[in-house]
Amino acid sequence: MKNSNQYVLITGATSGIGFELAKLFAKDGYNLVIVARDQGQLDAKAAELEQSGIRVISFAKDLFDPEQAFALYADLHAQDIRIDVLVNNAGQGVYGEFEDTDIDRELDIINLNISSLVVLTKLFLQDMTARNSGKILNTASIASKTPGPWQAVYHGTKAFVLSFTEAIREELRDTEITVTALMPGATNTDFFNKADMQDSKAVQDKDALSDPADVAKDGYEALMAGKDKVISGFKNKVQVGMGNLTPDSTVAHQVYEQQKPIDK
To answer: What are the annotated GO cellular component locations (predicted)?
Structure first.
């Protein structure tokens, strides 16, 4: 298989968009390093992915702690495993008005969505730079383009991810390394359960949520084409386009209404 000597590292790889991305890489013959918190889930997903005839290595790491990101890199370095493609997919949110939400949980989310992503990008990018090859895919969100009442911290972290991705892509413009941002909208994953967001108006219509397989396909194709970013889904492209033409204060109010609880 043409990619049999290459390894892809995917965080948040046991469900949702991360697992769908893992399946696409496996289908194309890439070996995988999959990362999540639950070793049991990792083992089950590894067994499934290995049916494609590729090698899968799993690491149970809690990336709410950025030190675990440093440890992951050290573990791979010790095993002499070279990462050719880095997929920073792990991310979480928390639902509620900011004055009421738990600050410790929000700091954990900032560490997961930003700090650990930055650590992994820094360490593996330095290796990629040394050999002048590699690809990085960062899962941002269309939330990166709008203020996010009811999810103020999550939207803020995704704005960071998009800005960070675009900045380092420009720094690498004269190299053979590409950096791509994947920007899905609301997707049918476990994100809303983890964020305690089931009462939000935004998630009541399950049929309106994107299929994680479709989102992963958009991200995979954009990554392989070396694109700077991709907004997944026509509806989301329209939403971002309209948001670009609308004052931020108006967008913030629209998002407030879209995301508020169904009983308000």
So the answer is: membrane
CA–CA gap between residue 157 and residue 226 (Å, rounded): 24
Residue 57, Cβ density class (10 Å: 0-12 exposed, 13-18 middle, ≥19 buried):
middle
The residue length of the chain stands at 264
CB neighbour burial string for 168-190, b if at least 16 within 10 angstroms, e if fewer? bbeebeeeebbbbbbbbbbbbbe
Q: Please indicate whether residue 169 or residue 263 has the higher confidence score (pLDDT).
A: 169
Query: Three-class SS of residue 65?
Result: coil
Dihedral (C-alpha) 43, 47, 48, 50: value to the nearest 10 degrees? Answer: 130
Strands 56-60 and 31-36: parallel
Q: Is the whole-model pTM more than 0.70? A: yes
Sheet holding 134-139, edge to edge: 56-60, 31-36, 7-11, 85-88, 134-139, 177-183, 229-231
Tokens of 75: 């573990």
Segment 91-105, tens digit of pLDDT: 999 999 999 999 999
User: Which own/partner contact pairs does 43-49 have at CB distance under 8 Å and 24+ positions apart?
Assistant: 44/14, 45/13, 45/14, 45/19, 49/22, 49/23
Q: Is the pLDDT of residue 146 over 80?
A: yes
Count of Cβ atoms closer than 10 Å to residue 79 Cβ: 9
Query: Does 154 participate in catalysis according to the annotation?
Result: yes
Domains and CATH numbers, the chain: 7-259 (3.40.50.720)
Q: Of all helices (H) and strands (E), which one includes residue 202? A: none
Contact of 30 with 6, CB cutoff 8 Å: yes
DSSP code for 182: E
Residue in 145, 73, 142, 69 with CA at minimum distance from that of residue 111: 69
